[in-house]
Amino acid sequence: MTDIGHNSELTTEQKSALRMHHVRRLLELEEEMQPLRERRKQIRAEAKGDGFKLSEIDAAIRLSTMEDTSIFVAEIKELIEIAKAFNALPPGEQGDLFPDRRPANERCFDEGKVAGLAGKNPEPPYGADSKQGQAWMKGWHEGQRIMREELQAAMEKRNAMKADETEDEPFPEAAE
């Protein structure tokens, strides 16, 4: 591998040609990414149509991809402090986030449930034979069950509502 700046011996024309080579490759990549951006936009619109705030979806995505979720919790605490400073919390509202005082097995079950809902692999961060590991796996299976049963029911209801909306529309093509 060559060091950064290795092209300092190039002529102006060579630098220009090399720069345009990289620009062309990146523009090609941008073009390839456009259908993905459009699909992302469509999925976000569907989520919004299903009644979710996009900030809610973004937060869930961020949390599901974070290595250390305590960073997210710290940011929320900071936002609560800012809200307090601007008197944005209703009177008497504490806005405090208390540490998780649930029993370890309950906490592990919920962690596994979230992993199951997110479609992650059944790999508990605890020993598989430990009580926490077993609780995590039970939670994971519960998350998977919810996804199987409840997602299907939710999608059927959503699709039925959409079908009802299009039946009420006398000229569905004109609405688009």
From TrEMBL:
It comes from the Bacteria. Pfam families: RMF (PF04957). Residues 165-176 have a biased composition (Acidic residues). InterPro entries: Ribosome_modulation_factor, RMF_sf. Residues 115-135, 156-176 are annotated as: Disordered. Keywords: Cytoplasm, Translation regulation. GO terms for biological process: regulation of translation. This is Uncharacterized protein. It comes from Chelativorans sp. (strain BNC1).
